[in-house]
Amino acid sequence: MVVLFYTLYASYHERSNLHHKLGCIPAQQPHNIIIVKKKRHCIIMLATTTARTLRNTATRIMMARGSAVTTAERLTQQPQRRNYHENIVEHYENPRNVGSLDKNSDDVGTGLVGAPACGDVMKLQIKVDENGNIQESKFKTFGCGSAIASSSVATEWVKGKHVDEVLAIKNTDIAAHLKLPPVKLHCSMLAEDAIRAAVNDWKAKKEGKANAAA
């Protein structure tokens, strides 16, 4: 127990003045001021605190520190949110050319690709005229926002172009346009693969039709 003692010594002639200055009237003292009269001296012991008070104070301080540490750890352990570029958000929230075309039609090419590692599946379809120009494109994608955005961009870029021209579209072009983070680059690769698969499917139908006619 830590107690601060103030001990004052006074003679009988000075005691009355001391009591007057300190207000040390025994009958009116609070419980933490003890006056002991012993012969010619007046010993005043002033107990400013007690061991219990100190223990309670120390406990509150430790609890406050522990709470602060726990809060800091909780904040640092929270997963960080990834900020996506506005181009990704735009194509995710407002995807272009969502839908399907008749896959059995001779002028429709269908590309169906997937990424086993992440579970994304992308279907991209193109409708091609007699000159090999893509008139219409549609997609359906099961996957994350980056995969949907990549599909949307791919369908926009192929429309109005020749089938041979769209084969020049690379995943790096799609990724650069959308500002895809490194962990989402595989989504743009799926889009490139879907374009190639759709063109190849249309060419295979065209060749098959030509061979049948011959």
Task: Write up this protein.
This protein is 47% helix and 18% strand. The chain contains seven helices and five strands, in the order αββααβββαααα. Strands 3-4-5 form a three-stranded antiparallel β-sheet. A two-stranded antiparallel ribbon has the order 1-2. Strand 1 (33-38) and strand 2 form a beta hairpin.
Keywords, separated by commas or semicolons:
214 residues, alpha+beta, three-stranded antiparallel β-sheet, rod-shaped
- DSSP summary, beta strand count: 5
State the end-to-end CA separation: 109 Å
Mean pLDDT: 76
The number of helices is 7
How do the strands and helices of this protein lay out in sequence?
Elements: H1 12-22, E1 33-38, E2 41-46, H2 51-77, H3 86-93, E3 108-115, E4 120-128, E5 134-142, H4 145-158, H5 163-166, H6 171-178, H7 185-213
Antiparallel strand pairs: 1-2, 3-4, 4-5
Helix pairs in contact: 3-4, 4-7, 6-7
The gist of it:
The protein contains 7 helices and 5 strands, in the order αββααβββαααα.
